[in-house]
Amino acid sequence: MKIAVFSAQPYDRQFLDEANEQLFSSKGSNETSFELIYHNSPLSLETAPLAAGASAVCAFVNDQLDAATLSSLHANGTRAILLRCAGFNNVDLGAAERLNLFVANVPAYSPEAVAEYAVALLLTLNRRTHRAFNRVREGNFNLNGLMGFTVHGKTVGIVGTGKIGLATARILKGFGCRLLAYDPFTVPAFKELGEYVDLDTLLSESDVVSLHCPLMESTRNLINSTTLAKIKQGAILVNTSRGGLIDTPAVITALKERRLGGLALDVYDQESSLFYLDRSSEIIHDDYFSRLMTFPNVIMTGHQGFFTVEALREISEVTLRNMEAFATGTPCKNDLVGGKGVLSPRP
Ligand code: NAD
Asked: pLDDT-based confidence at 108, cuts 50/70/90?
C-alpha cells in the first residue's frame, strides 16, 4: 500500500523507514511493509498530483490540506490523510468528512520535548546566551547588554493547560515560579501547580506569558493590540504553539513601544513560506519577519520544538500505526473525522 510523504526531510525518511521496518518485522508474517514514496516538496493544490496512486498522504505542519487540495487528492485515489504532527489547523476537516477521508494525527509524541524547548527559548532570550555565544567567539567578553532577570519567583502565565502547557508548568514549578493559567477547560493536574485565572488577569500579572493553546478560529490573533495593551509592562511572550495565535503587526508595535519586554518564537504566522528550507541565498520578501529580526529582544527558531529523537520515533511509529488501523478497518483513537475511505471494511 503506497503512502506519499510530503515535505520529506532526511530525518523523516530515516525515522519513517525505521518505523516501517519495525512495524512489519514485529509481525513475523509475510505481510509486506508500506511503500513510502518521499517528496521533498510541500503539499499544495499544485503538488497534489504527485500523490496519484497513493492510498494515503502523509503531511506535516505547513502542508496545505484545504478543500481544493483534498478534492484533488481524493480524485486521484487517496483515501487517508496521515498527519505526522499534533496540530490539524491546516486541514479542512469539514471537506475531509464530506469526502469520507480518513484523517488521523499524532496527538501526543513527547509534550516534554516542546515544553523543554519553550523553557529553553525563555532562558536564552532572558539571559542572552545567543548573544554571549557570538561575543565570546569574537573575543568580546564584555557583559554590557547581557543582563537578564532571575526566573525563580517570577509569575508565568500558561495559556492552554493541555499536554504541553502542563509539561511546561511542571518544569517552571521546579524553577520556583508562581504559575497562573487560562484555559476554558481546566484540569486538576494544573490546580496542584498553580491557579486558573481569566485571560486579562493572566496577562496583567505575568512576567512571562507562554502560549500552548491550539490555533482555531476562536484563538486566531489571541495576542492582538487589545490583549497586548493588557499585558504587564516588560513581559516576555513565548510562542511554541502556532504562529496564527499572534497578530504580528500588533506585536511589532508593542515591541517598538517597549510594552513587550521580549518575544521568543518557534512558530510564525507566515512560516509556511519560510520554514524548513535553506533560504540563506534568497531575498526574503516578508517585511514583518525582517522587522522582527531587527529587534535585539526577539529570537525566532524555525518550528523545531518537536525535534528530538524520542519525538520523531514516536511520530513515525504512531503515523504508521494510524495507517495500519485505516488499512485493516480497526478503530483508530487518533481518527479526527470518522472518515472510512473505501479501503476500510468498517460499516
Ligand atoms: P492539547 O490539545 O493537549 O492542549 C491544548 C489546550 O489548549 C487544551 O487544554 C485546550 O482546552 C486549551 N485551549 C483551547 N482553547 C483555548 C483558549 N481559547 N485559550 C486557552 N486555552 C485554550 O495540545 P498540546 O499537545 O498541548 O499542544 C498545544 C499546541 O502546541 C498544539 O495545538 C500545536 O499547535 C503546538 N505544537 C507545537 C509544536 C512545535 O514543534 N513547536 C509541537 C507540537 C505541538
From this structure: confident
Cβ(231)–Cβ(257) below 8 Å: no
Q: Which amino acid is at 239?
A: N
Determine the average pLDDT of the residues in 131-160.
Answer: 98
2-109+308-328 and 111-300 in the same fold? yes
Ligand 1 pocket mutation pick from 187, 197, 201, 213 by most atoms within 8 angstroms of CB: 213
The domain limits of the chain are 2-109+308-328, 111-300
User: 295: Cβ–Cβ under 8 A, 6 or more apart, which residues?
Assistant: 255, 263
For 53, the grid coordinates are: 496512486
How far the first Cα of the chain sits from its last, in Å, is 21
Instruction: Quick: pLDDT tens for 63-92.
Output: 999 999 999 999 999 999 999 998 899 999
CATH superfamily for 111-300 is: NAD(P)-binding Rossmann-like Domain (3.40.50.720)
Ligand 1, pocket residues at CB < 6 Å: 86-87, 108, 111, 114, 159-165, 182-185, 212-215, 218-219, 240-242, 266-267, 303, 305-306
List Cβ neighbours of 194 (8 Å cut-off, separation of 6 or more).
158, 169, 173, 178, 179, 180, 181
- Worst-scoring range by mean pLDDT, 123-127, 130-134, 164-168, 342-346? 342-346
pLDDT bucket at 24, cuts 50 / 70 / 90 = confident
The CATH superfamily label for domain 2-109+308-328 reads NAD(P)-binding Rossmann-like Domain (3.40.50.720)
Q: What is the DSSP string of 279-328?
A: -TTSPP--HHHHHHTT-TTEEE--S-TT-SHHHHHHHHHHHHHHHHHHHH
pLDDT tier at 344, thresholds 50, 70, 90: very low
Q: Please, are residues 306 and 85 in contact by the beta-carbon 8 Å criterion?
A: yes
